[in-house]
Write a structure and sequence with these properties.
2 copies of one chain form a homodimer. By secondary structure, the first copy, chain A, is an all-alpha fold. Chain A has a single domain, classed as Tetracycline Repressor, domain 2 (Orthogonal Bundle), CATH 1.10.357.10. Chain A contains 9 helices and no strands. The longest helix of chain A is centred in the N-terminal third of the chain and has 27 residues. Chain A is elongated. The relative contact order of chain A is 0.13. The model of chain A has no long low-confidence stretch (mean pLDDT 94). At the A-B interface, α6, α7, α8 and α9 of A face α6, α7, α8 and α9 of B. The structure holds a DNA duplex (30 and 30 nucleotides).
DNA sequence: TGACTACTATGACCGCTGTCATAGTGAGCG
DNA sequence: CGCTCACTATGACAGCGGTCATAGTAGTCA
């Protein structure tokens, strides 16, 4: 996850996502990103001539791709894949992090949405795209598990909505309670949506 | 909702919440709050000697109380109150606003959580308290509608999580789709949790 | 009248931020 | 050697942010 042997450009995007996760977009400085990435300050204007806006947008895109790619890995971890099982894995990534490392970070896409949706159109679009590249794999996985095609998309949206909201509440409360709650309540609902093919 | 005949102090708290909703905490300036409230700049240090931190915390508290109080009003608007009906009303407040006035604003409590959870402990606590004063009335309403006591709290958390997440997605996409989706998917689930007392 | 209090009015300060300008390094290569 | 190109290094700048200091006004109470 924290591969430090990437190019400096990639490291800066990654660091930006990390810092945005913790402090939000506005409170994350360019110099701070460079320092966190162990990259020279001069590289910022070289790799990101579009300035902070470009860097933030790429960080958001990175986060969306990361979340989308995780879906396949979650599925692989389940010996009997079900919609509820997938959701539980998605949430577990967060409970694990919070219990192991504290409640420092939230979802960078959420942070970008809150801070930039109204002020920076391109970042808003990047956030929407990130949600899409996250929802897509989830919906496809649901279909593969036997969820009727027309319900996969809506259920994927429900899963991600509940997860994002629970992340917010968990960070505010410094307690994973909200995360475990949405899992407990939603898992049976999700599993019931899969066509019984036993 | 936008009573301009309050004291200047109250107007500033209200304005702070409005601006935080749109731009986030970090991007909201003190001078901007005063201007938006039509209040003199000098009043800031008089009414809020604790500075921005105090103002933000009060705005978050105000938002929590506002959300909590709305619950009773939503219930009154339903001639046959059901859990799903309450949730639909809660979400409808947002779809109505977005369709009428655009996607400018999100939830101020979410914004405070994203921007301050890690940096400003007191604001994090204020956000947690706001979520609590919102969840409380919802859970009580569920119990009154026949939801078993031990499930009211979890279901209230689920409702608010899904709503908060859907608000994020809706703002990013500039589309109420996510909001209408969570309503459609969750209403039957919520109604099924109420004990049939016909 | 004379405090005393509540509130308003400004101007200044300092720190920080994103961005730009300019110059420097150093490898690759002909 | 000299040229090019990718990258690095700094310093400056202009703007804005929250906060403080100081002074002013207005109403009230004794």
């Amino acid at each position: 996850m924290a591969q430090s042997e990437r190019g400096p450009r990639e490291r800066m995007v990654f660091s930006a996502a990390q810092l945005i996760r913790r402090e939000g977009v506005a409170a994350t400085g360019m110099r701070e990103v460079a320092a966190h990435a162990g990259a020279p300050r001069g590289s910022l204007q070289h790799y990101f001539p579009g300035g902070k806006e470009q860097l933030v947008n790429e960080a958001v895109g990175w986060a969306g791709r990361y979340a989308g790619n995780r879906v396949a890995r979650f599925l692989a971890a389940l010996d009997e894949p079900t919609p509820g099982g997938l959701f539980a894995e998605m949430v577990r990534q967060w409970t694990d992090e919070y219990e192991a490392a504290g409640f420092a970070g939230g979802c960078p896409v959420a942070a970008a949405t809150v801070d930039c949706a109204e002020s920076t159109e391109s970042t808003r679009e990047a956030a929407a795209a990130a949600f899409a590249t996250w929802t897509g794999p989830v919906a496809r996985a649901l279909t593969d598990m036997g969820v009727p095609g027309e319900r996969s998309g809506p259920l994927a949206t429900l899963m991600i909505s509940a997860l994002e909201g629970a992340i917010l509440i968990a960070r505010a409360e410094r307690d994973v309670r909200a995360l475990t709650t949405v899992v407990r309540e939603l898992v049976p609902v999700l599993d019931a949506a899969a066509v019984k093919a036993d």
